[in-house]
Design goal:
Elements (H helix, E strand, L loop, with lengths): L7 H12 L9 H4 L14 E2 L16 E2 L36 E7 L5 E6 L5 E5 L4 E6 L9 E6 L7 E5 L7 E5 L4 E5 L12 E4 L18 E3 L6 E5 L18 E5 L7 E5 L4 E6 L6 E5 L11 E6 L11 E2 L3 E2 L19 E5 L3 E6 L13 E5 L12 E5 L1 E2 L2 E2 L3 E5 L13 E6 L5 E5 L4 E7 L2
Parallel strand pairs: 1-2
Antiparallel strand pairs: 2-27, 3-30, 4-5, 5-6, 6-7, 8-9, 9-10, 10-11, 12-13, 13-14, 14-15, 16-17, 17-18, 18-21, 19-20, 22-23, 23-24, 24-27, 25-26, 28-29, 29-30
Length: 452
């Protein structure tokens, strides 16, 4: 199915078509019968709600838990929109990420060039997209000094690579797939390969490409495979903030697309998702999840970024509505037929967090209450008077269902003066159970482990 956005009416027709799709049981049916511990997501924690949940970096700390609801949101333009981009500084003397009691943070490697998504290969190697220079790096092992034993480039000459996935899912993949900003490619892969053993193969030849932020469209493309390996999902963010230019190239944007693994049978899996930067498959339910940057310029506390399970055929509102049918004031009265079709996301974050990558904790070294919970990176705000984000959060779940809360897990990247020295991007679980976090401000991979 193809969306042509030359006019808003044509776009709305296509969204209406997508929204009548029924959720299928094809997504990892074998996984649906597995169970996980029934754990209370809020045991031992006080959850901030209402206006108390809407803080800034000065109220962040490991263990602080928040729940944001639609009822907590202000009216549009209640505060003015500001351009307050991060003022990046070198890591100050003594500055270090903060994590909950019982955990410790180590600097695994630094001096990387624009490290973004990080993914753990079946053999434990860490694959990292260095998006700026257009390459994929591999880190292997851990030396006596705490860094990687092997550090090498797997592939180069890519175009703003971001998403990385191994196919087929399982212990013995045959390919590693890479999402460029404007295509999906793959390389032959056998367990333990440190460099591409064969030529690059084109899978999806043409995705809507993006520039680098301001005015160039959202450029990151993530990809994941359904648990049974039969389908591939690719996220494509919007070109504009809120479709303010009806002539903007929004074809096949603000969507999660579905393909066969060979790139055939393209269709829109879910629509109205402004910029789903990160995708993940829940290890128990097989559900597709996404981490989303919502729209800007409506004020400090609008519109919330979010993390959610993705409903097949679902419509999440962009650009005409947000958070379950609230009309965007920049599109007054447009497409009332879509209002009741807008889905409200599972977990509302604070606005302008810039929520990026997401993973689920499937290791065994963290305490058992963390098992199968989500971890997401919050890259940090620019369209807000006081900074928010710049941290990694935990997304509690109960039997694979999000509780609606989120909890600070790794903070401390902003100085007391409001300067920024670290910006989390990628999150992955290493083979030894450590949580690995990329930081594109300091060029670092951080390693977080529980002290037993």
């Amino acid at each position: 199915m193809k969306i042509m956005r030359s006019t808003s009416t044509r776009l709305a027709i296509q969204i209406l078509g997508a929204s009548v799709l029924l959720t299928t049981a094809a997504c990892a049916s074998s996984l649906l019968n597995r169970s996980e511990p029934d754990k209370s997501s809020s045991q031992g924690h006080q959850t901030l709600t209402g206006q108390s949940a809407l803080g800034d970096w000065t109220s962040d700390a490991p263990g602080v838990r928040r729940r944001v609801t639609v009822a907590d949101l202000p009216r549009p333009y209640q505060t003015r929109s500001v351009d307050n981009g991060a003022h990046l500084v070198p890591r100050p003397e003594g500055a270090w990420p903060k994590v909950p009691a019982g955990f410790k943070v180590e600097q695994f490697i630094t001096d990387l060039d624009n490290p973004r998504e990080i993914v753990t290969a079946p053999n434990g190697d860490l694959f990292i997209a260095e998006s700026g220079p257009g390459r994929i790096r591999v880190l292997r092992g851990r030396s006596a000094k705490g860094g990687p034993e092997v550090n090498t480039v797997f592939a180069s000459g890519l175009r703003q690579p971001f998403g990385i996935a191994f196919y087929p899912p399982g212990p013995s993949p045959e390919f590693v797939y890479i999402a460029n900003t404007d295509s999906v490619v793959r390389y032959p892969y056998r367990k333990g390969d440190l460099s591409a053993s064969g030529a690059q193969q084109s899978v999806v030849k043409a995705l809507p490409g993006g520039g680098r932020l301001r005015g160039g469209g959202h450029w990151t493309r993530d990809l994941r495979f359904r648990a049974d390996g039969q389908k591939m999902y690719v996220s494509v963010g919007s070109f504009t903030n809120d479709y303010e230019n009806p002539n903007a190239p929004e074809d096949h944007r603000a969507d999660i697309l579905e393909f066969n693994p060979d790139g055939s049978q393209e269709r829109i899996y879910a629509a109205g998702i402004r910029n789903a930067v990160g995708l993940a498959i829940h290890p128990v339910t097989g559900d597709l999840w996404c981490s989303v940057n919502e729209r800007d310029a409506l004020g400090d506390n609008l519109v919330p970024d979010y993390i959610t399970r993705v409903k097949e055929g679902g419509f999440y509102g962009w650009p005409w509505f947000y958070m379950g049918g609230t009309q965007d004031p920049r599109h007054p009265g447009e497409h009332p037929e879509l209002k009741n079709k807008v889905l409200t996301p599972d977990v509302l974050l604070e606005s302008h967090y810039a929520s990026l990558c997401i993973t689920f904790y499937n290791g065994s070294s963290f305490p058992k209450e963390f098992k199968n919970d989500g971890f997401a990176s919050e890259h940090g705000s620019w369209n807000r008077a006081r900074r928010v984000g710049y941290k990694v959060i935990r997304v509690p779940t109960k039997r694979g269902v999000p509780t609606g809360e989120f909890e600070d897990f790794m903070t401390g990247f902003v100085t007391a003066e409001g300067d920024v020295w670290g910006r989390p991007v990628g999150v992955a679980v290493a083979s030894d159970g450590a949580l690995m976090v990329t930081d594109d401000a300091s060029g670092t991979v951080w390693r977080v482990q529980h002290s037993r």
